[in-house]
Amino acid sequence: MGKRILIADDEPNIVVSLEFLMKRKGHEVKVVSDGKAVLAAVAEFAPDVILLDVMMPGLNGFEVCQRLRENPAWDSIRIIMLTARGRDVDMAKGLAVGADAYVTKPFSTRELVDKVEAMARE
Q1: Residue 8 and residue 99: Cα distance in Å, rounded?
Q2: What are φ and ψ of residue 27, in 5° steps?
Q3: CATH of the domain at 57
Q4: Least packed by Cβ within 10 Å: which of 13, 39, 61, 69?
């Protein structure tokens, strides 16, 4: 049975490909394009996994991740941060605010799908 995947990214090309791949795997997908919309979507959609871009309008991915982790009701949501910011300090920050994984752009869509599948099974 598919999981609920929330894609939070403001780059249409990435969103289109990720949405297609996740739906092809049988997952239910919701897409948002800014940080504040992520928080609203989590409350409404109850995702199992969030693909969270770091650089978005409104709240950035670090802020969103931190707010999600502050709410015990959302502890079980797996968060994969997606970003062009590949420096070690950025990765450390992402993991420190509660991301379960940190993937740098450009990324292999196959590897990302595999990572989502693995996290969705946990």
Answers
A1: 14
A2: -90, 150
A3: 3.40.50.2300
A4: 13
Domain region containing 64: 4-121
Q: What is the pLDDT of residues 8-54, one digit of tens each?
A: 999 998 899 999 999 999 999 999 999 999 999 999 999 999 999 99
Query: Model-level pTM greater than 0.90?
Result: yes
For residues 31-56, one letter each, b for 16 or more C-beta atoms within 10 angstroms of the residue's C-beta and e for the rest, the string is: bbbbbebbbebbeebebbbbbbbbbb
CA torsion 78-32-16-21 (nearest 10°) is 30
Which DSSP symbol is given to 55?
S
Average pLDDT, the chain: 91
Tell me the two tokens of residue 46: 């109850």
The single residue listed with the structure tokens 């199992």 is 48
Structure tokens at 32: 């948002």
Please tell me the distance from the alpha carbon of residue 47 to that of residue 83, in angstroms, as a whole number.
Answer: 20
Number of domains in the chain: 1
